[in-house]
Design goal:
mainly alpha; 68% helix; Serine Threonine Protein Phosphatase 5, Tetratricopeptide repeat; 13 helices; single chain; 276 residues
Length: 276
């Protein structure tokens, strides 16, 4: 049996497959064409299209004259396309590849913003939802990125905004600790709650959560029969925050910061009942 026809058929099949593959492969544009398409998309706020063109440019022309600027534009495009994770990855890559670039401060800034909004979630970014009751997630990573920017590039145009966001993150972290402390109190884990309140006072001393944390410490120390420490916390509270609502008009401590849930059976049975 001759194998010539079989070889011919195989050759024809390979040729057809190759032609089909070539037909399905998009034409590779020049670096300038990709970049111009990307810039046009950015100008029209079509960030998804801009991302696609910039990624193609980086794939086919990774060392061209537009490569570095394209990487910066990709950070911008992904961030504005609400791709926080992708923006952070692009920013981190730029920082590693171009640590001496005049624009590296921008990469640190967007890296911080991406982590900041990724941590809070899209709903928190656009809706009036209290983020302090959520898990802190990437808040610390955002703080680190902003801190690096402010420390290494104090003259950067992005430094003032980064500093303000660091203040907001501190406030967020402290408020989150208060939510956790309240949770422990509801579970009657008083020592755990006390540790959280003390952590706020020691690590976030300039945040709005401090007076509530001090008031909580006073009550918890008293509940745990530690009068000396309760008195110390009370002195700090009265000296620094005399207008705190746990004081009456004569500056006597009346408490109220520690609110326990009723966990007895009668509190469950009374739900929905009222006196006739």
């Amino acid at each position: 049996m001759s194998i010539a026809p079989t070889i011919k058929r195989l050759s024809a099949a390979v040729l057809l497959a190759t032609l089909a593959a070539c037909a399905s492969t998009p034409d590779v544009l020049s670096e300038k064409e990709y970049y111009e398409k990307a810039r046009s998309a950015l100008a029209s706020n079509n960030f998804s299209e801009a991302t696609e063109q910039l990624e193609a440019l980086e794939t086919y022309h990774p060392f061209g004259r537009y490569a570095q600027q394209a990487q910066l534009d990709l950070i911008f495009a992904r961030y504005n396309a609400l791709d926080s994770e992708g923006a952070a990855a692009a920013a981190d890559r730029f920082i590693k590849l171009h640590p001496d670039s005049p624009s590296v401060d921008y990469a640190h800034y967007i890296k911080g913003l991406a982590a900041y909004y990724s941590e809070m979630g899209m709903a928190v970014r656009f809706l009036p939802i209290d983020p302090t009751s959520r898990d802190i997630g990437q808040a610390r990573e955002a703080f680190q990125a902003f801190s690096t920017l402010v420390t290494n590039f104090p003259e950067s145009n992005y430094a003032p905004d980064a500093e303000q966001r660091m203040v907001a993150i501190r406030n967020h972290l402290a408020a989150y600790e208060m939510h956790v402390a309240d949770y422990y109190i509801r579970r009657e884990a008083f020592m755990a709650a006390l540790n959280r309140a003390q952590y706020i006072v020691e690590n976030f001393p300039e945040t709005p959560a401090v007076p509530d944390a001090l008031a909580m410490m006073v009550e918890l120390y008293r509940m745990m029969e530690m009068p000396t420490r309760a008195a110390d916390a009370l002195t700090l509270l009265a000296t620094n925050f005399p207008d705190h609502p746990t004081f009456d008009e004569q500056l006597r401590f009346k408490g109220g910061q520690v609110k326990q849930e009723r966990r007895d059976l009668s509190s469950v049975l009374d739900i929905g009942l009222s006196d006739d």
